[in-house]
Structures are given as structure tokens and as C-alpha cells.
Amino acid sequence: MQLSSANHAFISGGASGIGLGIADALAKRGVRVTIADINAEALAEALTTRGNALRGVLLDVRNRDQWAMAKAKAEEVFGPVDLLVNNAGIAPDGLELADSQPESFERIIGINMMGVYNGVVTFGADIRALGHGHILNVASMAGLSSERATSGAYSASKYAVISLSETLRVEMAPHGVSVSVMCPGLVMTNLPENTARIGGNLRPGGKMPGGLDPAVAGEMAVRGIERGNFYILTAFDRDEPIRRRFEEQLAAFAIGPDADLV
């Protein structure tokens, strides 16, 4: 997408972390940005130092009524949204699937996956009608390969975001709308704190041990949009488990049908 022609970006989970990094990178390019977040304090803090290029709205991405209200408030100020960033998410709960709590699993899916769907169903038809624009969905490297115990719900939600994005790309392409999916590696965000704030469980320790500066991750996301990349990565040392996964899948095809069963 040529960002010089972008009118208005809407970013969920935009008050901190990768979402705020993307907002800053877009604002530097002259795009007007609405950041939406469930955390009123973080929202107010982010807006305090960023002038009139950014506006903020409260949003729980699980609530479609709130999505509708947030859209109306955002477009009343900045006009139609032609760049949607579905970024809001929470952390893994650290439980093996056999021990998982249904309410925790549902919370992770509700925010990480249904939150993306709610963004698409709120804005997608209008962006499609514009005949131009872009939708960026934020998944994770855990959505490309899942070999880590205790992250089953989280990985499932991120796999789903990638699959949704692949389908959305096919659907939107004939209408001049491009789609990307971002799969970050470790980024220094307040994801654990945000997860705890809404009542989510955390794996033992519950802290991000380091990682990429979210401002750098945000810039990488925006450059990926400008280049027209579908997959946007921030870490480039995780290819081996992905390669093993696809080699195993291709090997299954190579076996072919059992002659006595067909």
C-alpha cells in the first residue's frame, strides 16, 4: 500500500507495545491514526505526548457493540478508515491443554482470534467499498510453528489469525485492498501486565525476558506494508522448526495412497 494515499488508520491494542510502535511509524508518514485500547490509563498516557495526529478510543475487542461505537467516534474525527491494524492480544496462560481452564482458553481465543474477526467484520466491508486500503493482522511466530508446551491456546489463536488472513487476502485482492499478517518474535511489551489486568492467567514468571524494541517492530510492520509483504516477520532465527513442520507435511503427501484402500 502506498501510505502517501492513506487517510486514516485504526489500531486495536494501540496504546502500548507493537500497536503504539505502528501508530508512531504511521504518524511519521503523515497518516492520521486512531488508537483503540481497553486500558484507559495507557491510552491517556500515549496521547499526552503525541499531538493531534493521534486520537484515542476505548475498546474491548471482544465486544462488537464497542467496535461499532469506536468506529463511529474515530470516523467522525478523521473520516473513513482505509488502514486497519488488528493488534490487540494477550499472553499464553502457561497451562498444558489437558490441564487448561475453559474460561482461560476462551479468553485467549476471544481476544487474540475473535478480536481480529470483530475488527474485520466492523471495518472490512467499508474498506472493500473504498476500492483501496490495507488490513494488517498481528499473529505471532507461534502461529507459524508450535512446538512449545503450555502455549496451546495461544498458538491455536495465532494459527487461526494466519489462516483468516490468508483467506482475507484472496477475498480482498479483487477490490484493491491488500492484506498482511505480522508474526513477531519476542518484543519488549507489557503483554503480561495487560493480560493480568483483564483477569488472564500468566505462565510462571509472567515477565517478558527481553526482545526487540516495539518502536523497531512498529517500523518493520509499516515497511512491510509499504513493500506489499503478506508475511511480516521481526525475528529471523526461527526458520528451523517451520522447515521441519513443512517437511513433515510434504513427506505425508509423498507417501501416497495405500493401493489396497483405493
Instruction: Give the tally of β-strands.
Output: 7
* CATH level 1 class label: Alpha Beta
Average per-residue pLDDT, rounded, comes to: 92
Rg, nearest Å: 19 Å
CATH architecture: 3-Layer(aba) Sandwich
- What is the count of DSSP helices, taking H or I runs of 4+ residues? 9
- Strand order in the sheet with the most strands: 3-2-1-4-5-6-7
Q: Can you give a write-up of this model?
A:
This protein has 262 residues and is α/β, with parallel strands linked by helices. The protein has one domain: NAD(P)-binding Rossmann-like Domain (Rossmann fold, 3-Layer(aba) Sandwich). It has helices at 17-28, 40-48, 64-78, 102-112, 114-130, 152-172, 191-197, 214-227, 239-255, and strands at residues 8-12, 32-37, 54-58, 83-86, 133-138, 177-183, 231-233. Strand 1, helix 1 (17-28) and strand 2 form a beta-alpha-beta unit. The model has no long low-confidence stretch (mean pLDDT 92).
Topology record:
Elements: E1 8-12, H1 17-28, E2 32-37, H2 40-48, E3 54-58, H3 64-78, E4 83-86, H4 102-112, H5 114-130, E5 133-138, H6 152-172, E6 177-183, H7 191-197, H8 214-227, E7 231-233, H9 239-255
Helix pairs in contact: 1-8, 3-5, 4-6
